[in-house]
Amino acid sequence: MSIRLYDSLHQAVVDFAPRVPGRVGIYVCGPTVQSSPHIGHVRSALVYDLWRRWFTHRGLQVTFIRNVTDIDDKILDASAGEEWYALAYRVELEFTAAYRALGLLAPTYEPRATASIAHMHALIARLIESGHAYAADDGSGDVYFDVRSWPRYGELTRQRPDDMEHAGDAPARAKRDPRDFALWKGAKATEPPSAHWQSPWGAGRPGWHIECSAMAARYLGEEFDIHGGGLDLRFPHHENELAQSSAAGHAFARHWVHNGLVTIGGQKMSKSLGNSVLARDLLATARPAVVRYWLGSAHYRSTIDYHDGVLDEAEAALDRIESFLARAARRVAGTRFADAPLTVPDEFAAALDDDLAVPQALAVLHETVRSGNAALDADDVAAVASAAAAVQAMVSVLGLDAPDDRVTDDADPARRALSILVDRLIAERRAARESRDWATADRIRDDLAAAGIVLEDTPTATDWSIDG
């Protein structure tokens, strides 16, 4: 086994070797909870859920940290008429609900920034002591990272400081360089007192970047395996995290992994364009398994585009998988092949070992479904069982085996009534066939087909489905 991943720092696919044999530590930048999650947020979260599942399948013990940024300029700006912490918690619950709906595994720990203030103070003090940070001399209480003091600044995004945009997280008047970024933001009269903490530099609150550096070190140590997040976080957030953690003497992340973004009809999602698609709205248009299939079907580093029809395509693809598994389960039930071991094909494993190549893995999955359906048509029970076991194993790795979220007969009175009627007609057709009344049997099949109901005869039963 050799898992390879694309390391953004080295800009190359590299072999992954865990820092501690048999264990993987992953830190993923979670949401800043100022507004409802959109499909870009859940796509990113799903990517690292897939990485986590694959590491686990390969026998590694994963410690998975996904933070919640619950204090930030954006949260304070969005909280007009509501306490900022109430807004943050309400939105956090929306993210959690979306994650659960999509079957994402819960993090090992999910720290909130507001619970790690003391760790941020310690990290800032360490940077000041080592000459890489300074307190503003204008009485504001701000503390800044001195980018010119760190020769490696810009290494993640391959930029020279002189070519970078100025840091816009605080006024430049007290900065030694306009690119210096805030580690601690002094209290302002326009902000609620509840958003301030006491510090050696005065009351205030943390800057965005220091939050993740402190939480990553707190929960994974000063060196860990993988830091993940969306491609839009590479600069300035991850660049600044890397600089301040390294300047403080932390080895920090061995590998940096970034997922691609989501576009809407070929355009970048943005508030100014008003084209953001919220997670709750997406989940209202299709069952969660279909949304998960679509969000995870492209390579994680690629951009995916949401447009009319994409969920229909995902629904059709997932239905082929689920229909085969249902048919196969009925055919092998009670046979000596019913307990075939669940093992993913070598080609599937090779695809996911190669920088989590899900499109290639899905190709193996669908080819296995195709061969399994052919085995069903040929009534080759051993081949059916083998294909079904492989498909079930692959579905499980991809997280598509959550409990069926389609409407059940018990939950839908109309569906329940239809089932009673169709099952009765199937029983009448079976009786007609047994009495060799082929005309009646054919008429029942034709009547059901005209209503959009397809019958499938197996050696032991007749199953039905709605065509469409």
Description:
With about 475 residues, this protein is α/β, with parallel strands linked by helices. Helix content is about 45%, strand content about 15%. The protein has helices at about 40-55, 75-80, 85-100, 115-130, 210-220, 235-245, 280-285, 290-295, 310-330, 345-355, 360-375, 380-395, 415-435, 440-450; strands spanning about 5, 10-15, 25-30, 60-65, 135, 145, 180-185, 205, 225-230, 250-260, 260-265, 265-270, 305, 455, 460-465. The chain has a four-stranded parallel sheet, with helices on both faces. Strand 9 (about 225-230), helix 6 (about 235-245) and strand 10 (about 250-260) form a beta-alpha-beta unit. Helix 4 (about 115-130) packs across helix 5 (about 210-220), helix 9 (about 310-330) crosses helix 11 and helix 13 (about 415-435) runs antiparallel to helix 14 (about 440-450). It is elongated. The model is unreliable at about 405-410 (pLDDT under 50).
Structural key phrases:
15 strands, alpha/beta, 14 helices, four-stranded parallel beta sheet, single chain, 43% helix
Separation of the first and last Cα atoms: 42 Å
* Rg on CA atoms, Å: 27 Å
What is the count of β-strands? 15
Main beta sheet: strand number and arrangement? 4 strands, parallel
Indicate the low-confidence ranges by residue numbers.
406-411
- As a percent range, the share of helical residues equals 40-55%
Write the H/E string, N to C: EEEHEHHHEEEEHEHEEEHHEHHHHHHEE
Overall residue-averaged pLDDT value: 92
Q: Biggest sheet, strands in spatial order?
A: 4-3-9-10
Instruction: Provide the structure class.
Output: alpha/beta
* Shape estimate: elongated
Tally of contiguous helical segments:
14
- The proportion of strand residues reads 5-15%
